[in-house]
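Exercise 7. Given the encoded structure of a 490-residue chain, write a plausible sequence.
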């Protein structure tokens, strides 16, 4: 093995050990999201020569930056995006510096692409919200910030872009920051940093700019390299959704999955849900050998001291720290399907590795993502006709599942507090949800709101009532609820 091979191996080994930061960019149309990411890649020397040649050539042919290089072309990959100068799909880019690896999701700014932003931000640790220094905090800024808070992202950078167009005014920057901090205060985002920059010229993107002597902070890249995200993982509540039962021979039985949260050690006592049976961890197995302990988001195989029955969709936890186990819960739901919601329809719910039938019991209110206003039938802002959710709408709803799920509130545990709804006919992902908590009885679906089977009116004889009631109970287990009337109403 020659020296060059060793150098490459050492480089790859070092790169593998680096911390990974997932981030998204969001902002209004033409705020400069794609330009900012392109500038990060360009100034951090993360482009190959053929990419640079193509960028210069495309900038002259279809760029929107005048005589400058149009860095946005590095991200706007679809033909429609390049022609319109906008972002439609979520564009992912990977790069690394000497200190950290990054995966960047460039998300669309248009309201009709809210579902794309939810998709891009679902795994993000940090969000960069861009505003145009000339326009300040606008409706889209508020909408994107609300979505970021909904996704539980704990670190936000307000990037005040195009400072060159306001002569790098400290007064203008402070006006925007003050307005934004007033808006964001009730949303409970713990870490908010504000940086003045010019993505086109590179001010405060990779290096501190001499044109903002009044700004005492660090550049955007310096902040991204140093922001502390280790505490974002829930290391307290051990949750291990079982993905697969591994039995290569009669002497080995292991439970494969990803540690969703918490820390598990050899010898720890664990409980299997829903059975409640207990055992101790015999070994923690990986491809590279056994471990003494595991933590999120490691994928491992756990073996137990005792032979207990555990299947896919079930969960291993510490007996003294249990998740919520319930069939009814409240959630913030984002509708992702072009087909409007059918409230009477039954869906599949996929939460961790678990799949069940579910129904929508009630919609408490919808959220106007531009004004944060709650719209409901009670306050007169919705009618029964406008209550069902449409594409990109967000609402607080109550769900009932056919079997118990094991979950935590989303703000406490993203992995066990999130789910998707699947249309059983089309297999489309109809919605994504963030669980708030188990539901109170008073918030459950009222009996008079359910469809009714009036057995005498349907001409059904009393001797068949018991069989029908059994069938109705089975329907309820599958997420479909109806009520039965035994007597004819006068």
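Solution.
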């Amino acid at each position: 093995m020659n020296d060059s091979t060793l150098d490459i191996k050492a480089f790859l080994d070092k790169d593998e050990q680096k911390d990974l930061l997932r981030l998204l960019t969001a902002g209004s149309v033409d705020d400069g999201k794609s330009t900012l990411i392109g500038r990060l890649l360009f100034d951090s020397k993360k482009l190959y020569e053929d990419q640079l040649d193509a960028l210069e050539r495309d900038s002259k042919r279809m760029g929107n930056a005048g005589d400058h290089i149009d860095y946005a072309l590095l991200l706007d990959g679809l033909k429609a995006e390049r022609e319109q100068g906008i972002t439609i799909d979520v564009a992912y880019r990977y790069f690394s510096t000497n200190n950290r690896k990054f995966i960047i999701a460039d998300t669309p700014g248009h309201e009709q692409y809210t579902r794309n932003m939810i998709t891009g931000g679902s795994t993000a640790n940090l969000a960069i919200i861009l505003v145009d220094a000339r326009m300040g905090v606008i409706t889209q800024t508020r909408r994107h910030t609300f979505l970021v808070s909904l996704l539980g992202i704990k670190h936000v950078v307000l990037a005040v872009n195009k400072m060159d167009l306001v002569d790098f005014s400290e007064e203008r920057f402070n006006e925007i920051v003050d307005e934004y901090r007033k808006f964001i205060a009730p949303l409970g985002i713990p870490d908010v940093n504000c940086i003045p920059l010019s993505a086109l010229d590179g001010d405060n993107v990779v290096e501190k700019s001499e044109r903002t002597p009044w700004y005492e902070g660090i550049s955007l890249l310096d902040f991204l390299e140093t922001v502390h995200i280790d505490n974002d993982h829930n290391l307290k509540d051990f949750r291990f959704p079982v993905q697969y039962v591994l039995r290569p021979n009669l002497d080995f039985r292991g439970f494969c999955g990803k540690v969703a949260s918490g820390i598990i050690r050899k010898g720890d006592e664990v409980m299997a849900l829903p059975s409640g049976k207990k055992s101790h961890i015999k070994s923690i197995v990986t491809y590279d050998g056994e471990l003494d302990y595991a933590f999120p988001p490691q994928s491992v195989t756990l073996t137990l001291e005792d032979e207990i029955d555990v299947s896919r969709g079930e969960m291993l936890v510490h007996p003294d720290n249990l998740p919520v186990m319930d069939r009814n819960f409240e959630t913030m739901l984002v509708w992702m399907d072009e087909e409007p919601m059918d409230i009477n329809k039954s869906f599949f719910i996929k939460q961790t590795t678990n799949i069940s039938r579910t129904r929508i019991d009630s919609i408490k209110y919808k959220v106007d993502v531009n004004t944060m206003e709650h719209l409901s039938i009670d306050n007169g802002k919705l009618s029964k006709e406008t209550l069902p959710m449409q594409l990109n709408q967000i609402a607080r709803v109550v769900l009932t599942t056919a079997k118990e799920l094991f979950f935590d509130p989303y703000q406490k545990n993203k992995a066990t507090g999130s789910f998707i709804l699947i249309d059983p006919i089309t297999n489309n992902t109809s919605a994504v949800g963030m669980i708030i908590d188990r539901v109170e009885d008073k918030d459950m679906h009222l009996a008079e709101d359910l469809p009714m089977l009036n057995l005498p009116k349907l001409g059904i004889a009393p001797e068949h009532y018991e069989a029908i009631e059994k069938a109705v109970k089975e329907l309820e287990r599958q997420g479909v609820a109806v009520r039965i009337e035994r007597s004819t109403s006068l």
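Remark. Residues 76-88 have pLDDT under 50 and may be disordered. Students should compare their own answers with the one above.
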